[in-house]
Each structure stands twice: as C-alpha cells, then as structure tokens.
Amino acid sequence: MKSIFTLSLFWSTIRLATPLVLAAMGGMFSERSGVINIALEGKMLAGAFTAAAVTYAADAKFGLGMASPWLGLLAGMTAGLFIAAIYAIVCIHYKADQVVTGAAINIMMIGVPGLLSGAFFLSSGSTPQLPKEHLIPWTPIMIAFVLVPVSWHVLYRTPFGLRLRAVGEKPEAADAAGVSVKRIRYSGVLVAGILAGIGGAYLSIGQSSLFTRNMTSGRGFIALAALIFGKWRPFQTMFACLLFGFTEAVSIQMQGAVKLPSGEDIPVQFIQMVPYVLTIVVLAGFIGSSRPPQALGMPYQKEK
Amino acid sequence: MRLLRELLSPLIAVMAAFIVGGILVLLIGDNPIQAYRLLIGSALSWPDGIGYTLFYATPLIFTGLAVLVGFRCGLFNIGAEGQLYVAAFATAWVGITFAHLSAWLLVPMCFLAAILAGGVWGGIPGVLKARFGSHEVINTIMLNFIAIALVSYFTQYHYKIPGDPILQTSPIGPGAHIARLGKFVPGLPERIPLNLAFILALIACLFVYLFLWRTKWGYEIRATGSNPSAAEYGGISIRKQIILAMAVSGALAGMVGINEVLGYRYRYYDGFSSNYGFTGIAVALLGRNHPVGVLLSALLFGMLIRGGIFVDAFTNNVTKDLVDVLQGIVILFVAAEALFRGPFNKFGLLRRSKV
User: Fold this and answer.
1) What are phi and psi of B168, to 5 degrees?
2) Domain B48-177+189-302 adopts which CATH fold?
3) Which residue from A25, A71, B157, B188 lies 20 to 30 Å from B119 (Cα-Cα)?
4) The pLDDT of residue A13 is above 70
C-alpha cells in the first residue's frame, strides 16, 4: 500500500468536511434549542440548487461576472433560510411532529430542484456548467472553520447561548426565567437554515461547478451523524466531520478497493459505512455516551 | 360523522397539495389543469394505466403498513428503505442459491427470506432502542445507508455475472417466479408487471388490521404507543413491544422484495427502490395510520407515480419531480393538521373527538 496520508488526501479531507461542518454547526444551533433537524439534507439541497441557478443566471443573463458566485452564495443562504422558516413555522408555531415535518421537507426538496431545473434549464435535474473562474472554492472553507470557535463562543460565552441551551434542556425553567422559548427556537432553526444553505452552496459553486440531481447524496444525514458523534459540542462535532470527510476522501481516492498492507482488499462500500456504523455505536453508548438535549423533539406548550 | 371527520383532513391535505403543486406548475409556465388531467387520465386508462398504477401501489402498501405498525407503537421507522433493500437481496439470494428446487418449495422459502431479512433489519433499531435507549429515527437513517452499501457490496463482489455492466445479480431460478396477474385477468397483458404480490399486499392489510386490533400482541403494541407509562404500569413490557413492533414493521417493508424480485425483475437490481420506504411515510400519515387508509393512499400515490411519467413526457416544462413535491406537501399538511383546524373549527368538523 502506498501511503494514504498524502497532502492531497489532507486537502480532500478538508474540502469534503467543509459542507459537513457547515451543516452540522447549523444543526447544533437547532438541536441545542430543542428542535430536531433531520431536514438538514433538504436545506442543503435547496442551498445547492439555488446557489448554482442564481450564479448561472447572474453570469449568463445579467453579465455580473465575478460578482455572480457571491450573489449565488447569498441566494443559497436565503433558500436555506426560507426552507427553515417553513420548518420553523410548522414545527414551532403549529407544534407539528418535528421528525415527520423534516422527512416531508427532505422528500419535497428531492423534487423541487428537479422541477425547477426542468423548467428553467430544460434539463433533467441539473443546472448548466459554471465557468471555473466564477466559483468560490475557498471562502466557504474559511467560513466553516472560523465558525467552529465562533459557535463555541456563542454557545458557551454569550447570554444567547445560555438561553439556547436552557431552552433545549428545560424549556419550562427558561420560560419561568422570562426567556421566550419560541423566539429562541425560531432563531436556532433559522441559523441552521442559513448555515446548511451555505453548506449546500459550497457543494454546487465551490466544490463542483454545477448542481446535479440529489447532489448532497446523504451529506445532511452525515452532518447529523457527526453532530451526534460530536455529542452536540462544536469542537467534537468538527472533529467528527473531519473524520467522516476523511473516510469519504479515502473512498474516493481509492476508487474501488483499498489494499491492506497484507495485500487484501477492503471494498469501498465498507469504508462508506464507517460514519454510519460509528454513529450507531456511539449512540448506543459503547464509546462514551452521547446524550441529546433533554427537550429535543418536544414542542413547547406555554402554560396559560 | 366520525368517518367524515377521519376522511376530511386527508382530503384537505391532498387538495391543498394539489393547489400548491398547481401554483408551482403555473409558475414554471404550464397549464396545471392540463397537467393534472394528464396525470390522472394516464393513470386510470385500461389496461396499462390501471395495471401500472396497481403495480406501483404494491410496494407502497407494504411500506405504508410498515410505517403504520411503527407509528402505532409510538416509533418512527424511517428505515423501511434499508429494510426493503436487505430483504430484496435476501430474496434473490435464496432464489439463486436454491434455484434447482421446485416452485412449491422455493416460493415459500423466498417469501420467508424477504420477511425474515426485513424483520431482522427492522429489529436491530428496535433492540438498540429497547436495550440502550438510542433513538430509532437516527438508527434507522444510519441503517439505511449501511444496508444500501452492504447489498451493493454483495452484488458487486459476489453475485454479479462477470462482465455485466449493470449492477445486478444473476437471475433467480424459474421456480421462484410468481405469476403476473395478466395470467388470470382477461384483457390485462402479461407484459404489465402487476403480479401476485399485489394480492399479498391486500392480505397484508387485512393481517395488519387483525394483528393490531384483534390480538393481544397488537393490543399491547397500541397500548405502548398511546401511553407507555400506563402500559408499563398495566404489566406490559415496553421493551418487548418496541422490538416486536420494529421487527413486524421491517418484515412488512421486506415484502417489497417479493414484488420486486419474484414478480418483476427476477433478480436483485441495485438501487431499484425509488424511495418506496420514504413514500411509505406519506402513505401511512395520509392513511391516518389505518390499513384501509394505507390501501387508499397507496393507490393514490401509485397513480401519481404512473401519471408522473406521462406528465414528464407530454408537458413542456413539468417533470415527474412534481410527484415528489406533491408527496412532501401532503406530509407537511397532514403533519401540521392544526393549520386547518383554525378555520374549520368553527363548523366543528375537525374537532378531535374527546377520548
């Protein structure tokens, strides 16, 4: 086996971990406030499609040139925010089941980009190719990794973070202390939407140069897995994302099978399984315990 | 009156979804009336429309029932997708490995393989929840990905015909084939893949009804679902019910393998499921978690899948993705039932009956 720990593998790990970090940090703000976020996948898809479509339109239709990917990024964030707003209203205001609503958003977001790209670009689910000089390959990476200490600071060193955690653990107590549970949860979910939107945008206008059908291919769920693996804490979650990014990088670079020093093959499918198996193992408490915020998934009914 | 109440909110959800979908169609520059006429017309023509509608409805009945059994125990099985993949592969494995056996033996063995494999794969998150308290939603999502990778590995490395460019296994023995309904129904050509699994799906609806509402096990599952602490106080082992419900749920999802492998493709074809497991969530919710409701909503979604293909081909801009969008909106509206309770409450139509 040639050494797998090369520089190119390192960069590829960073690149592949970036969308995970962005989505997982978003998921953290939502889940620490007590709202489950299995809709990360759908929000990323919305961000990815919108970013690519807007970048293309800004460039090809309005001739904005270098400004177009920035407009695309902004649009991707807005799309994530928009989906999160729907999610928040249905889950927080109407107190619908969060998991069911998340599943609905994910199913819907498989369809919406396909429907729109069929109409706008006469394609079956992808956007036209973007020119290479109109991509933003570096900014989202920087955003992602700066976000981690910032999230830590917000979560543990600001009044907002204290309230967010309180609402996720003991909403009644937070409410009694005069914190608006609804407002905190709305902000948690909306922040998640914006960050997942950036994560999605990075996939289509950073890592590659177009949106393709279902291009997130489960990254929203891997981000969720990383969040659980990282015990809902910023730095641990980032390391989980790096680990999962690394497994993906290995499975891409090895194309087919990885050779063990003994000459035996490890089929790529087994490497792909690693994040999922680890998550189940951690959640079951085999490697330390991973305890979710206490009020996770429970709509809050204010006492009258 | 009660029946009317039960029917009203799913009907409103479907109508609301069609209206929102219609607005989307309008926005992308097509005529929604024409699109919907095409969608429904092509799904109800005889024999192709109806034949294919029922064929597409078959896996959805199974996955809808699977999600239903979970919900009735207070569990959310998002893992039907993984369970049906594992089961379909197991079915094909038996069909290939014991290909020389006669149909009388082989078909029941394949049925059993589908049910057992699905049941085991569904039982795993049940055990994890009962034993370690880890959330079934996360575990089923993770197990979906593991299942897909696992069967793809076995197909690629062990059961593919060398040189076949398509990721699929070698064919199952002819003894494992089950008959297409065209053989019995005059006017229905046998090229339409609607097969005996559809009849099996109808039987499964009846079975789930009898199981949940007429047996002690079913009663205990429902008791656990509606109030776990009361159930436990009444002497029901919640842990056992969680494992049982997840296993039954997985077994039902696994029966998709019978339709796919024994009645349609006669081999395991990697990635065959077009999100049947996830559509099952919509089917169960829209069917108000009742077997009759599941049957009706599976037929509706079967129609949408069949019709979606035609809308894709015969309109300018609308693609079959419209079906996914409609599905998502339906779940959203059913989940946020409170949305309609506001305006309709005045008439007392949707008021929850007092228990």
Assistant:
1) -150, 160
2) ABC transporter involved in vitamin B12 uptake, BtuC (1.10.3470)
3) B157
4) yes
